[in-house]
């Protein structure tokens, strides 16, 4: 850029420093676009207006350096997690980065779950699960950033815990972080500003400082990309199917032992042993579930993946990682969930136990947990 651009000019969409020299690098903006308001890089412009992913991302080391800097400040840290992928979006080692700063957990996307959901139950469940993962939040606030629900409580909590300090927003990709911040901008700032909101990883590439009216800032940080989430290892078309836009419709299956459920061609659950019982599937409405006999499951997968078993497409199915089998002995006396990071979860409703084998691409995190919805 010219001499008058020596000061650091940053993209108002993703926070990266702008440059006009190299279109293949992050922060590129055509010189003629510098006068445009808001000033955004070409990448953010194309994401916003054409829903187009770009190939440039920030490396993981840069993410960690940004997060580590939080511990050198005095601030409130808001950790946004996705209720639809809790295990995949929780930053278990967050306290190592933020030091003694208080952490508030915002549990997002409550609008995707049944309307009869008890939000206090979700709050208590998250507090317990976070504690088991080594987090000690000062509070847990269930919200829907997209719908603006829960924000009165969120604003009260921010005022209560931040002590006049800055607010850092941290979280994994696709948790709704930018949507949350846009809601906070409307309540805390008089700026005519909106962050780029996208389903593509790495949309925010550097910290973005949004000044508050009393002198502090809301500081957006890059989303952490966790490779064990299904949404990070499939193409954009499949990501769109995995991430629900509307409330999901739980589907209940009554199964006998030696029956199998396929979730498109992305995962497979085998009910190996146990009494006849029901299983409730919480996945995006765009994911087709197919039931078959366990003895035919391998044949069905080889013959129909990319067709009857879709998504993914046949082309992507051929490139998908091989499945890894996870074996779970469901304990008696309580309902449990089998969570597949990036896909959703299966609630095992039987109270007498069961033997389940869950198959998913080998890098995807699969966990057994106490039931979220009871």
Description:
It contains ten helices and 16 strands. The chain folds into three domains: 1-56, no CATH class; 60-226, P-loop containing nucleotide triphosphate hydrolases (Rossmann fold, 3-Layer(aba) Sandwich), CATH 3.40.50.300; 241-370, no CATH class. The N and C termini lie far apart (58 Å). The longest helix is centred in the middle third of the chain and has 14 residues, at 119-132. A six-stranded mixed beta sheet has the order 3-2-1-4-6-5. The protein has a five-stranded antiparallel beta sheet with strand order 7-10-14-13-16, with no helix packed on it. A five-stranded antiparallel beta sheet has the order 11-8-9-15-12, with helices on one face. The relative contact order is 0.12. 23% of the residues lie in helices and 25% in strands. Mean pLDDT is 85; it is low at 1-6, 50-58 and 195-205. The protein is an alpha+beta fold. Strand 2, helix 5 and strand 3 (139-142) form a beta-alpha-beta unit. The chain is globular and about 65 Å long. It comes from Insulibacter thermoxylanivorax. It holds the Pfam family YqeH-like_C.
Topology readout:
Layout: H1 42-50, H2 60-69, E1 75-82, H3 86-89, H4 94-98, E2 103-108, H5 119-132, E3 139-142, H6 151-161, E4 166-171, H7 177-188, E5 208-211, E6 217-220, H8 236-242, E7 251-255, E8 259-263, E9 267-273, E10 277-283, E11 289-293, H9 297-304, H10 314-319, E12 323-330, E13 336-340, E14 344-348, E15 354-361, E16 366-370
Parallel strand pairs: 1-2, 1-4, 2-3, 4-6
Antiparallel strand pairs: 5-6, 7-10, 8-9, 8-11, 9-15, 10-14, 12-15, 13-14, 13-16
């Amino acid at each position: 850029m010219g001499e008058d651009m020596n000061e650091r000019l940053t993209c108002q969409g993703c926070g990266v420093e702008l440059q006009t020299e190299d279109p293949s690098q992050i922060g590129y903006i055509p010189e003629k676009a510098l006068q445009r308001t808001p000033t955004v890089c070409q990448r953010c412009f194309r994401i916003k207006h054409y829903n187009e992913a770009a190939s440039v991302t920030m490396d993981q080391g840069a993410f960690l350096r940004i997060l580590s800097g939080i511990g050198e400040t005095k601030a409130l840290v808001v950790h946004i997690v996705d209720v639809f992928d809790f295990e995949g979006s929780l930053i278990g080692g967050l306290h190592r980065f933020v030091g003694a700063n208080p952490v508030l957990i915002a549990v997002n996307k409550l609008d995707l779950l049944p309307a009869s959901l008890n939000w206090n139950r979700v709050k208590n469940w998250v507090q317990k699960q976070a504690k088991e993962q080594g987090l000690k939040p000062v509070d847990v606030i269930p919200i829907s950033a997209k719908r603006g629900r829960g924000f009165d409580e969120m604003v009260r909590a921010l005022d209560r815990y931040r002590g006049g300090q800055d607010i850092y927003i941290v979280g994994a990709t696709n948790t709704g972080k930018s949507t949350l911040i846009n809601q906070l901008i409307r309540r805390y700032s008089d700026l005519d500003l909106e962050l780029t909101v996208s389903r593509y990883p790495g949309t925010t590439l550097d910290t973005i400082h949004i000044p508050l009216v009393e002198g502090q800032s809301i500081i957006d940080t890059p989303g952490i990309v966790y490779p064990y989430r299904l949404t990070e290892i499939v193409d954009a078309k499949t990501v769109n199917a995995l991430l629900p836009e509307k409330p999901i419709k739980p589907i209940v299956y009554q199964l006998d032992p030696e029956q199998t459920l396929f979730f498109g061609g992305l995962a497979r659950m085998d009910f190996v042993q146990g009494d006849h019982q029901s299983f409730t599937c919480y996945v995006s409405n765009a994911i087709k579930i197919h039931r078959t006999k366990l003895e035919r499951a391998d044949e069905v997968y080889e013959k129909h993946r990319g067709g009857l078993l879709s998504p993914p497409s046949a082309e992507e199915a051929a490139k998908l990682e091989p499945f890894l089998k996870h074996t779970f002995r469901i304990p008696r006396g309580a309902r449990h969930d089998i969570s597949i990071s990036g896909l959703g979860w299966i609630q095992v409703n039987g109270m007498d136990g069961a033997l389940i084998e869950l198959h998913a691409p080998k890098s995807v995190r699969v966990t057994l947990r106490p039931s979220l919805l009871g």
